[in-house]
Write a structure and sequence with these properties.
Carbamate kinase, nine-stranded mixed sheet, globular
Length: 235
């Protein structure tokens, strides 16, 4: 096994499946099965999920809403997604814990680093909700921060594209895929991997980022086993 402890970053939009918004039950079940297959290999798994399928803070701010207020709404959306993911994974037979950066003890534990690590050591899947708990930070930054705090070996960014390309492959058919990149190359080429705060945090802490297609069954297993899937960004 290449990775023993991972942080999986999922976008909120990924949960929509073919729906225009909200949460698609079938997509939830698919993700739960993918995570279960990896957990059964003995890999310790933490997950950060976005909230864009419900509410995106930046969009609210662009429409005249107070940015801090809008970001807090976005953070609450990530907790809703975390609860949905937790339910699907427990239905699949996994032991889970949901920890929130915003305290709401009726639905989630508060984020406590030592407790999160202990859960992972006991084989529980830990979902981190509520972003960083602060406005002006994305869930990409939350994922990077939590990955560093729990000593994850890699951030696995599950997307609908199978890696990082020279251009958007959905718009430019001539775009070619990178197998590996250095952080410096990503800066120089102006590639969009994560927002700059998250990306810089990963670089400074020498935490690799692997971008892969989460919607292809079995890909998550291949990644943790070290097979050539997606694009790896590392120092």
């Amino acid at each position: 096994m290449k990775y023993k402890r991972i942080l999986l970053k999922l976008s909120g939009e990924a949960l929509m499946g073919d729906e225009p918004y909200g949460i698609n039950g079938e997509r939830l079940k698919e993700y739960a099965q993918e995570v279960k297959a990896v957990a059964e290999l003995g890999v310790e798994i933490a997950i950060v999920i976005g909230g864009g399928n419900i509410f995106r803070g930046l969009k609210g701010a662009s429409e005249g809403m107070d940015r801090t207020q809008a970001d807090h709404m976005g953070m609450l959306a990530t907790v809703i997604n975390g609860l949905a993911l937790q339910s699907a994974m427990e239905d699949a037979g996994l032991k889970t814990r949901l920890q929130s950066a915003i305290e709401m003890d009726k639905v989630a534990e508060p984020f406590i680093r030592r407790k999160a690590i202990r859960h992972l050591e006991k084989g529980r899947v830990v979902i981190f909700g509520g972003g960083t708990g602060n406005p002006y930070f994305t869930t990409d930054t939350a994922a990077t921060l939590r990955a560093i705090e729990i000593d994850a070996e890699v951030i696995l960014k599950g997307t609908r594209v199978d890696g990082i390309y020279t251009a958007d492959p959905e718009k430019d058919k001539s775009a070619t895929k990178y197998q590996t990149l250095s952080f410096k190359e990503v800066y120089e080429k102006g590639l969009n991997v994560m927002d700059m705060t998250a990306f810089t945090l990963s670089k400074e802490n020498e935490l690799p980022i692997l971008v892969f297609d989460m919607n292809t069954p079995g890909n998550l297993q291949k990644v943790v086993k070290g097979e050539e899937v997606g694009t790896l960004v590392a120092n």
